[in-house]
Amino acid sequence: xxxxxxxxxxxxxxxxxxxxxxxxxxxxxxxxxxxxxxxxxxxxxxxxxxxxxxxxxxxxxxxxxxxxxxxxxxxxxxxxxxxxxxxxxxxxxxxxxxxxxxxxx
Length: 105
Description:
By secondary structure, the chain is an alpha+beta fold. Helices cover 21% and strands 30% of the residues.
């Protein structure tokens, strides 16, 4: 697997995650949205938003990510799942815990 990540820091953050195998190249991008202490992300495929995640998945309530880094880790996990044909690309509480994502129950 070949992985490229590029981008800049702000609401226009766009990062490319590229998976290359013998037959095809699939490209997913993500944008970190929000700011201050409330973050989320969008996953883009072929210039279309396919997932918009404004809240931390797998937990009760509507809590946003507390940091850009937390939102980034979960966006990259979901893109990993999409690239590896794991559908749906759901995130579990166990995965949040293993990434040390900060959230309240």
